[in-house]
Amino acid sequence: MKVKKKILLELYFDMLRMRSVETRIAQEYSKQEMRCPVHLSVGQEAIACGISKNLQKKDKVFSAHRSHYHYLAKGGNLNSMIAELFGKESGCAGGKGGSMHLIDLKAGLFAAVPIVGSTIPIGVGLAWANKINNKKDLVVIYFGEGSTEEGVFYESINFAGIHDLNILFVCENNLYSVYSGLGNRQAKKRNLVSISKSMGISATKLNGNNIETVFIESNKIINNIKTTNKPHLLELSTYRHLEHCGPFNDDKLNYREQKEINYWLKKCPLKNFEKLLLNKKIINDQTINKYIKKIDNELNQAFNKARSDKFPNKNKLFTNVYA
Amino acid sequence: MHKRKLNFSEAINEGIDQAMGKDKSVIVMGLGVDDPKRIFGTTRNLIEKYGKNRVFDLPTSENAFTGFAIGASLGNIKPILVHQRVEFALLTMDQIINQAAKWFYMNDGLMNVPIVIRLIVGRGWGQGPQHSQNLSSLFAHIPGLKVVSPSSPNDAKGLMIASILDKNPIIFFENRWLHTTYGDVPKDFFRETIGKSKIISRGTDITLVADSYMTIEIINAKKILKDFNINPEIIDLRTLRPIDEKTIIKSVNKTGKLLAVDSGWVKFGISAEILSIVNENINKNIISKRIGIKDTPIPSTRSLANHSYPNAVTIASEVLKLFDIKPKNMFNKYSKFVPGDIPNENFRGPF
Ligand SMILES: Cc1ncc(C[n+]2csc(CCOP(=O)(O)OP(=O)(O)O)c2C)c(N)n1
Ligand SMILES: [Mg+2]
User: What is the DSSP code (8-state) at residue B269?
Assistant: First the structure.
């Protein structure tokens, strides 16, 4: 499949936009206005951007603690997200959730929560409801490879397999859970794709840093889920560039080998795609500058607005405890 | 005993370290116990000293590894399990409540389960609904568990050692805001008694009871109340189960008034238990009240979360009400006693 130039440009723009959002958050974080934990996704742009391009608005997405890209790529409102990080009333969760609880129902970002693995069965439940209600909408459930160590992950794919649910399980394997490499967490020969297959779920592993691969393959997979009504698991290898939680790079702590870091920085999804498009003369420096300007404007607006928006009034503490 | 200043996390670290030095069967397990941050410093140097077989990181499999800990304890190992937030232990409630808490009883005393489960309670910096709950009353409800909840570095060490030496499953609560607080701690291997509270300061007019971080708030409330010539007796519970009924009863009998300050939600909570103890055991009329976290989940934004928690000023105000005093401008006058969303000025976030 050859990807149209228009799509290539959009994918590039999306990735650049994602990266710029996180970079801006990181730059502004030390001003101490965004007072909530942030799990930035720098380095993992290709996954959310590539998959979301194949999703329709009515498809639903679930995420975990590292959710900014899943939210934005699905069309989540940027202003509401930044305002949520600032703890403002105009935030997507009224300030009650912070970065770890993004939500945008209009865009189909159904829920993001920071308890590892928790949204996996909830996403399965929504897909189950879709089946009961004869809806063909897809449910995409994003999670880190850490989640696949929780029992609930296996229980969930088991159930999805029994009931033939329209689910794309997306495992973003960035090799780390906080500071822990895979060594103490998963046996060397463990293979998520084989595990899934032996549980009756078709599965694929892809290079999660190549946007074209992610886009093309997830397109096929998603079409297949929608026609066969069978779930699929996609494992994508990737790497986070910044610290687990917070705005900085903490590689001085030496929990990741320099060789490994260099290897993955060379595989930066954004830089490589940019190089490719430049080489193919699909973009030039002007295009890049134009995009950057556009994104910067959008970000300036979002941050200015979040800054000047109101904090929720004290009585909001007591609202929406019960429906 | 020789004492010096340690902070709460250093005190826990020293308690665990000394216990591991004395008893080879003590092991430490949990997500991140060997990582660069060492569970807020509490597991510092342990892997270097005792090696990978006794200090280890785990997969994100909380429910299963709680079972591993129980099973290991049946094989003469004494596991200390660590969760960086109490919420992660919610995935393990079957193992804790159905299994660990009942094992000894179910087999009528044939096999006990000596494990320590450290649960850290988050607070502040917008951690929000799923990373800042207290939940100690949930565990304190269960027969077969002991629930320890110290407020000072001395007790953190003494009760950690007592917990490790105990023959039962112990739930050990640590508030994140205590880790950086300092106090005198003996160098020696010593233990504090599980089930005994501590009268922090004597008083005659009202009894203030709290545990964990809230003890600091009632100590500060006493400073405020001095301006109103009210002299409260301050009790730090230190253990929630078994709760030290005697000390509470004796104190309230003397003062005739009680304010129980809950580290969690008030309804069905620790403060409810304290009021019941007083109600059931004291025959004369007692004026009593409880306050705790507002009866909602704890939101992320500081503009709301700051209102969730009791603090020295709201506590003092509540006491003054019991004395029919209605002062004005309490918050302005005593603003230095009102914490924001960070434990100290040096904190730059995130947790
Ligand atoms: C049940 C549970 N256990 C532990 C944690 C602490 N925690 C927060 S994020 C995280 C890392 C999970 O790693 P992974 O799923 O690979 O996601 P990544 O951070 O790499 O994106 C952990 C262990 C948690 N939030 N929930
Ligand atoms: Mg990971």
Answer: S
Find where tokens 């920071």 sit.
A114
Contact assignment for B300 to A95 by CB distance below 8 Å:
yes
pLDDT in tens, A31-90: 999 999 999 999 999 999 999 999 999 999 999 999 999 999 999 999 999 999 999 999
What whole-number distance in Å separates Cα of residue B211 and Cα of residue B270? 9
The residue in chain B having the minimum alpha-carbon distance to the alpha carbon of residue A116 is: B60
* Three-class SS state of A259: helix
String of DSSP letters for A223-252 = HHHHHH---EEEEEE---SS-SSSSS--GG
Taken in order of first residue, the domains within chain B and their CATH numbers are 3-186 (3.40.50.970), 198-337 (3.40.50.920)
Distance of residue A140 Cα from the nearest chain B Cα, in angstroms? 22
**Backbone torsions φ then ψ of B120, nearest 5 degrees:** -100, 130
Residues of chain B neighbouring A115 (CB-CB closer than 8 A): 87-88, 90-91, 130
**Phi (first) and psi of residue B201, to 5 degrees:** -150, 145
**Tokens 């060490």 belong to residue:** B157
- Rounded to two decimals, what is the model's pTM? 0.97
When CB atoms are compared, the residue of B32, B307, B351 closest to A178 is: B32
Instruction: Give the pair of three-digit tokens for residue B172.
Output: 């050990």
Residue showing tokens 């209605």: B326
Cα gap B257→B203, rounded to integer Å: 11
Phi/psi region, residue A297 (left: phi>0; alpha: psi -120 to 50; beta: rest), is alpha
Compute the nearest-CA separation of A76 from chain B (Å).
20
**Which atom of ligand 1 lies at the shortest distance from residue A117's CA?**
1
Q: What pLDDT was estimated at residue B1?
A: 75
Helix (H, G, I), strand (E, B) or coil at A127: helix
Ligand 1 binding pocket (C-beta < 6 A) is: A 65-66, 114-116, 144-147, 174, 176-178, 244; B 31, 60, 62, 88, 91
| Residue type at B301 in one-letter notation | T
B61 closest CB neighbour out of A114, A149, A312: A149
Quick one: which of B67, B53, B272, B78 has its CA closest to B160?
Answer: B78
How high is the ipTM of this complex?
0.96
Distance between CA atoms of A186 and B173, rounded to whole angstroms?
Answer: 30
Do the beta carbons of residue B259 and residue A277 sit within 8 Å?
no
Whole-number Å distance, alpha carbon B85 to ligand 2 midpoint, is 19
Q: DSSP H helical segments within chain B, as ranges?
A: 8-22, 46-50, 62-74, 86-89, 93, 103-106, 136-140, 153-165, 214-226, 245-255, 270-281, 302-308, 312-322, 330-333
pLDDT for B349 beyond 90: no
